[in-house]
Amino acid sequence: MSIVKYSVIVLLCSCNVMLAQTSRGAVPVGGGSATPATPQPTTNTPDAGYSAADSLDIERLKKQDLHWSVGGDITYSAPRNDFKTIMDSLDKSWGMGFGFFGAYRFSPVPVSVGANVNFLFYGSDEKVYRTTYKVGGIPVIFNDTITTSNSIIPISVFARFEPDVKVIKPYIEALVGFTVISSSHNVKYDASVGKSYDSTSTSVPFHYGIGGGVKIKLADIYNVPISRNALYLNLQTKFLFGDYTDYTFRLYDESSNTFSIVSKSSRTDLMLINLGVSYEF
Q: Would you list the domain boundaries of the chain?
């Protein structure tokens, strides 16, 4: 009886030792030393960093239509046809600037309507003219400053056909609007005179045009579980067919150090190349 009692005590002690080893992560194999258990990573969501509920919301938001888009771009512009011939003769073959746009998309129909404006700069100068006058028989030098600027500002409304594809979105558009052709100069007379003079000439011909481009997705931005926004790189080319009009440019001739006002007439066709970003929400 005492032998049975002793055996039971030994068995219970052995179980307690094994349980203690197991609780510390050790697993005895073949009498060898125990090896600590290595924690295994667990993945319980399709998207790292999100809970299972968040991942379901993200999948739902990916299907959400984005109706509004706004953006900005850097713009290269070049006159075309008769306008190009005249602008080349004035040494105004191209202009650089920037633009902004906004649009609304009629999802699920792949059509957007919107408006855009581009500010294009065709040269500005600031020169100081020194003129000598005799005041009481004494020569006096007057320094007059003349500042000139020339700009073209197309303002358009457009309708765009844009298939809703995932990453790369090509599109084409038709547009109508007005082109503001503006030229101005300011004469600031010598400080001893203390006067200035401004003059501006503006023409606003009508234009229509066509364009096309491609948008490349840079990122999806999630506000889980409420909304999704998207950021795109936007590359676009547009051709504007402008009405016949009179327009004026202010020019400074470096060689002769002279300032002149030149008036011309022609159609006002333009090509625009835009590179920018589009934010959809």
A: 66-124+150-280
